[in-house]
Write a structure and sequence with these properties.
- The complex is a heterodimer of chains A (about 110) and B (about 190).
- Chain A has one domain: Transcription Regulator spoIIAA (2-Layer Sandwich).
- Helices cover about 35% and strands about 35% of the residues of chain A.
- A six-stranded mixed sheet of chain A has the order 1-2-3-4-5-6.
- The longest helix of chain A has 17 residues.
- Chain A is globular, with a radius of gyration of 13 Å.
- Chain B has a six-stranded antiparallel sheet with strand order 1-5-6-4-3-2, with helices on one face.
- Chain B is built from five helices and six strands, in the order ββααββαααββ.
- Chain B is globular.
- Chains A and B meet through α2, α3 and α4 of A and α1, α2, α4 and α5 of B.
């Protein structure tokens, strides 16, 4: 499963059970993120323990932040699901904002590499 | 002519006492909507790149990100959010411009974004600002993220991220215009310490 445009990509690697995000995500409004959110939800329907690797995601606007929050809350509400997020300590927005997702789901693993 | 001015938050009024500044003006009605959206990112990145050049590549203790990159990314994120909001709520058929100005000082960068909104948007926004200014920020942020998730509406998240995660100080000025009627000129200032 993959979504790829000139600005960004979202790719699920089944062997690694990881969704990789990269590029610049500044879509117009939360609705525009539906395709990406659907991809994540579909992956999660099959696999209850997944990682999201954001280390190549250079930019995320606030609608994107909302999309990630939506996803994290969905997973949290499932109870038995496990989520790990890998961020980059070299990308400013990640060092500033990823901690908010952990606040929504304290059991989530957040690792900076 | 302007009447009826209201100020909220930590509004930065001295807009011309910096020698280093950059202003970009847009006419929202002259560009198709989807190109306009793309323009937000292009302009924000340009502002980030431009202002980063004023800061040498000093290291920041405890961070893997240097000063220049920190300025570039902060400016780019904040400018993009302010422009997205300004474009989203602007009255499109009035021919009134949207502008973004950045002023540089020794210890801070000030963003000043102006757009024109309807009376109704203006009243809704004031209610939101009053709530924001009287709330505990952490609590408000988490509440708004949960609200955004359930309603599929990201309103407010950009601003809260700017305040909470980037430690920047917002202020607002609402000016009700006499002509055209029922139009409010909104100026938001964001002060970012650097």
């Amino acid at each position: 499963m993959e979504i790829k445009t000139a600005d960004y990509y979202v790719r699920y690697d089944e062997n690694l059970a990881t969704i990789f995000f990269g590029g610049f995500l500044r879509l117009e409004g939360v609705d525009a993120y539906k395709e990406i959110l659907d991809l994540c939800v579909n992956v999660f329907d099959k696999q209850k323990q997944i990682s999201m690797n954001l280390t190549d995601l250079q930019f995320l606007n606030s609608s994107g932040i909302s999309m990630f929050s939506m996803f994290v809350l969905k997973i949290r509400d499932l109870g038995d699901a496990k989520l790990a997020i890998q961020g980059s300590e070299k990308i400013l927005w990640q060092t500033k904002s990823l901690k908010n997702l952990k606040r929504l789901m304290p059991s989530m693993t957040l690792e900076f590499i | 002519m302007e009447v009826n001015t209201e100020i909220f938050g930590d509004y930065y009024g001295q807009d011309s006492d910096s020698q280093e500044y950059l202003i970009i003006n847009f006419s929202p009605s002259s560009i198709p909507r989807n190109s306009r959206w793309r323009n937000n990112g292009i302009s924000a990145d340009f502002l980030g790149d431009y202002f980063a050049t004023f800061f040498p590549g000093d290291e920041i203790p405890g961070s893997k990100i240097g000063k220049q990159e920190t300025i570039k990314s902060s400016v780019s994120f904040i400018a993009n959010e302010l422009l997205e909001n300004a474009m989203k709520y602007s009255l499109v058929n009035t021919n009134l411009p949207v502008s973004i100005a950045l002023y540089m000082y020794n210890e801070k960068i000030v963003f000043m974004v102006t757009n024109h909104i309807s009376l109704e948007s203006s009243e809704n926004y004031k209610t939101y600002i009053k709530e924001l200014l009287s709330s505990d920020m952490d609590e408000m942020f988490t509440k708004q993220l949960i609200k955004a998730s359930s309603e599929g509406n990201s309103s407010g998240i950009g601003l809260l991220t700017i305040i909470n995660d980037y430690g920047a100080k917002p202020g607002w000025k609402f000016e009700k215009l006499l002509n055209p009627v029922d139009v409010v000129k909104l100026t938001i200032t964001i002060q970012l310490e650097v």
